[in-house]
Amino acid sequence: MSYVFPPPPVVSVPVVGRAERFPVHRIYCVGRNYEEHAKEMGFTGREPPFFFLKPADTIVVADASQTAVIPYPSLTANLHHEIELVVAIGKGGRNIRAEDAGQHIFGYAVGLDMTRRDLQTEMKKQGRPWCIGKAYDQSAPIGPITPATDAGDIHNATIWVQVNGSDRQRSQVSKLIWNVAETIEHLSTAWELQPGDLIYTGTPEGVAAVVRGDTMTGGVEGLTGISVQVA
Ligand code: MN
Predict the structure, then answer these.
(1) What global pTM score does this model have?
(2) Confidence bin at 47 (pLDDT 50/70/90)
């Protein structure tokens, strides 16, 4: 096989305790999946799950050993952090039932769904797609993936992010409106899930702006945390 130009490299995420990396297929994101965050965005908190995507190459690997650096993106004056539990799919499928969802999960990671909030808000107002607010380059920092068997009781874990050492978001994964299994059930009716898919499961309340020079340090109890600086 030859190509008219070199194909892009496979996007991948390190796996805790393994030499092999997790190759990324798609990035699905769940919108407004914690009640208090839905409320701060002006909604009731009670609605069926909805989804948007980011391209796989928006991933920025934030290795545990060092702070990853992301540039302050273009076109925005209101860049928001959204700390999220990320589910890594190891076995694909469609119409997966919630009670079977666990068999499809390879592991979990900590992610940041970085958002150009001003652009997203304007697109919402105009009834246009969110892509420019959500799916911009380097918008999906992620830490190493912990295999599910080593992740502990992820469904009752604390989730948090600090900016320059001060709490911004702190909640519990148990407060997800649609839990991980239910999210996989819904998502797999709309798309056939594939090994390598990542699901950013939604963010709790406390989303706010970061500026150049800020460092975000985030975690989910039981997983390797991430540290990301905005340059
Ligand atoms: Mn989000």
Answers:
(1) 0.97
(2) confident
CA of 20 relative to ligand 1 center, distance in Å: 28
5 CA → ligand 1 middle, Å: 34
Residue 166, strand partner residues: 163
- Quote the ligand 1 centre to 136 CA distance (angstroms): 13
Domains of the chain: 12-230 (3.90.850.10)
Ligand 1 centroid to residue 82 C-alpha, Å: 6
Q: What angle do CA 137, 165, 117 make, to 5 degrees?
A: 35
* 118 has pLDDT over 80: yes
Of 44-58, 87-101, 114-128, the least confident: 44-58
Question: Can you count the helices (H) and strands (E) in the chain?
Answer: 4, 18
Q: How many angstroms does the Cα of residue 150 sit away from the middle of ligand 1?
A: 25
Cβ-count burial 213-230 (b if 16+ within 10 Å, e if not): ebebbbbbbbbbbbbbbb
Non-local CB neighbours of 10 within 8 Å, separated by 6+ positions: 23, 24
* Token output for 74: 């273009």
Alpha helix (H) ranges present in the chain?
Answer: 35-40, 117-126, 131-134, 180-190
